[in-house]
Write a structure and sequence with these properties.
By secondary structure, the chain is α+β, with helices and mostly antiparallel strands. It has a single domain, classed as Alpha-Beta Complex (Aldehyde Oxidoreductase, domain 3), CATH 3.90.1170. The protein has two helices and seven strands; from the N terminus they run ββαββββαβ. The chain has a four-stranded antiparallel sheet with strand order 3-6-1-7, covered by helices on one side. A three-stranded antiparallel sheet has the order 2-5-4. The chain is elongated. The N and C termini lie far apart (about 45 Å).
Length: about 130
């Protein structure tokens, strides 16, 4: 899978918009739909379906691949799958409605499913005293 490297940081989608906790991408990468789904399942399992979850990226960019043992030329390969191009600073997943400790562990488990370095983020005005 060859593609042009993206150089800049995320200009939009780089702050918490819906939830109180989130994971932020620290690298540039293409994330597939299967990877996002695996992270979503891991997070919702740990939260035991409490609270709410938002996935902030969507795999809408197709990538092609030619079959094995095919010679050069003869046109472009068939669509192999879909990816979400991610740049540093992009919010990937946000959650709300669960305590801080549950959120931190749930997002840690979800981040393990992604092929990228991430950072746990808490809303600036989050009130730790109400737990």
């Amino acid at each position: 899978m060859q593609h042009r490297a993206q150089k800049n940081n995320a200009q939009r989608g780089n702050q918490l918009a819906f939830g109180s906790f989130g994971i932020k991408a620290m690298d540039t990468i293409w994330i597939t739909g299967q990877q996002l789904e695996a992270a979503r399942v891991a997070v919702t399992r740990y939260m035991q379906r409490q609270g709410q979850l938002w996935i902030r990226v969507f795999p809408d960019k197709s990538f092609t691949k030619k079959p094995a043992d095919v010679r050069m030329g003869k046109g472009k390969g068939a669509v192999e799958g879909y990816v979400a191009p991610v740049t540093p600073g992009r919010m990937l997943i946000e959650i709300d409605g669960v305590p801080f400790e549950v959120a931190k562990e749930a997002l840690r488990l979800g981040a393990q499913k992604l092929p990228i370095k991430t950072k746990f983020v808490v809303r600036r005005d989050y009130d730790f005293s109400k737990e």
